[in-house]
Structure formats: structure tokens, C-alpha cells
Fold this protein.
Amino acid sequence: MEPALSFQLFTGEATGPRLGKVTTAHGSFDTPVFMPVGTAGTVKSLNPDQVAQTGARIVLGNTFHLLLKPGPDIVAAHGGLHGFMQWPHSILTDSGGFQVFSLSGLRKLDQDGVTFRSPLDGHLERLTPERAVEIQQALGSDIAMVLDVCPPAEAPRDEVRRAMDLSTDWAGRCLVHHRRPDQALFAIIQGGADGQLRAEHAQSLTGSPFDGFAIGGLSVGESTGDMYAAIEATTPHMPVAKPRYLMGVGTPQNLVEAVARGVDMFDCVLPTRTARNGRLYTSLGVLNISNARHAHSLEPLDAACDCYTCQHFSRAYLRHLFMARELLSYQLNSIHNLRYFQNLMAAVREAIATGGFEDFRRAFHSALQPEEE
């Protein structure tokens, strides 16, 4: 039987930039890779063809949101999430743990799982490691995540350790309960901003036969320096021959710096969320399309960008759409931002392949100008 996931590492070791390819039941994608977020079965404002045209070959869906609405049974009736959202390429599903633990006043944690009230209608829900696996198996994603405990950035060390220990126990329960042969299962490494705990948790998980490993619990309020230090403390203890996924991160600068520290996979809502707020990424930094200086501009958003938006529309038109709150604004802005992230990852891969990553890294940072107010 073919494995649910295969990973080819072309260049790179335990630390430093790595070049690879992941293959799932729904195709392959090159790493380092950025995964657009389709939380509730859709990348907001775009249809599946538009998402694919940005270069994406894997998207993320979320167990928590799909559990609450429409429910895993409805998704399963469509043959799983691929059929439900008409996305023919790879899908990774988060376990929902991050969302549950962000509901600090609406959930209760115990050794066996977590009980929480739905933020939609207040009804009680119960999520255990076994149920998180069952839901993701019904969703039919190519990569499922274990249920973990995500402590807040300000949590004291003893609370972070308790979260680690419980996450280790839950990861083992997920592994035992996971039965779908065409679905890979990734474990999640916790430890807050404490490098010693990060290394310890990585070592405790990587002896188990997970298909890949994620770094969780970052981008939750810690400083950028602490985030980079936590990554540096973790990747040396992650298997070289399996994909490494940094969850929920982040800005273009974060992606480049995490690649430099040995990370292969990323997801974040940032490009689509900021697109809806008029913040657009360019090769020179972040542009705010609402600024009056763009009102008469015939320029594209970014002369260096090959996306549909930049090839067809001026900044003046895009500003007009945004100020008029036209729905097309969200679509065109999202196409551009997602294409920017995909182009960035392609440039990163090319730099690694040619041995010029450090030169690329310096040039990338030096080209960025301060964000427009």
C-alpha cells in the first residue's frame, strides 16, 4: 500500500533552508510552501480555480469551524472536503485545538479532552483526541493534525509544561485512533517561548511514527525575536526526512526567516484578511490602497507581479472599488496578495536551489520600505 504522504528532501539538513516535495493522494507541492487558509471550506472571496491560479496546490481547512457549521456528516456526504468545496488538490485540516483554547471563557479542559460552548449558538460541544481524528477522517483531508493544548503567550512555565505533557498524551491517542490509510497525521510541538521546553517536547514526539511534525503555539502574542528563538530551538530536534510545518505564521518576513531556520510549510490568514482591509503586499513593502495618493494612479499595484489584478487594473480603480466597498475589491485584492505569497515562496525555492538563499534573504529585507499609514 502506498503511504498517505511522501516527502523528498532535495537539499538541506536539520537546520537552515531546505528544498523538497510533498506528495499526497491529491497531488504534489514543492516546499517551502505557503498554504492559503480556507477555514470554513472556502478561501474567502475566491473560487477554487482562482485559488489554484495563484499557484496554490494545498489549502487549509479547520476542524473547529467545519464541526460547528455545516457539520462533518454533510461534508462526508459530498465525498469529503475535496468534493464539498470542489478543490482537487491537497488539503490540510487543523484539529481545532487553537480555536478551542482561544475560547478562554467558554471552555473547560480536563485530562480526557475539552468541553466548550459554541460561539455560534452556545450549545455544548466535546472535543477529545479521538473525536478530532474522527472528524478529520470524515472531512477526508490529505493531512490531519493531532489535537493539542495551546497555552497563551503569557502562560507561566509550569502551565506550558502541563500543556506539553497533555499534548504528548493526546498525540499518542490520536495516533492509535487514526485509521484512514490515505490521510497523513502530523504531531504538534508545544513549549511556548522556552527553548528548553521546545527541544524537550520535540524529542518526546519525534520517536513516534507521525508523517510530519508541526511547531504550534507561536504567533500568539510573543515577540518576533522570541518566535524565531523558539523555532531555532525546535528544528534541530525534528526529523530531517519529514516535513516541518510552522502553524499560523505569518508575514513575508516571518516566512523568509523561518525558512532560514529549517521550516518547510506555512499557513496564515494574513494575505486574505489584509486584502479585505485594503493592505496589499508588494515587492517594496505593504501598500494601503485607501490612501488618497493612489486615487489618480495609473500604475499597477506592483510592476513586478504577474497576477490577474496587476495585469489588468490600476491602483486608481482598485482604490475606487475599495472605497465604494464593492465586492470585487475583496476578490481582486485577495488574488494579488495570495499570488504575492506564492511568488515569494517560488523565489525562496529558486534561491535555495541555486545556493543563493543568503543573498536573496539580504536583498529581500533591504528592498522592503516602511508600511504606508
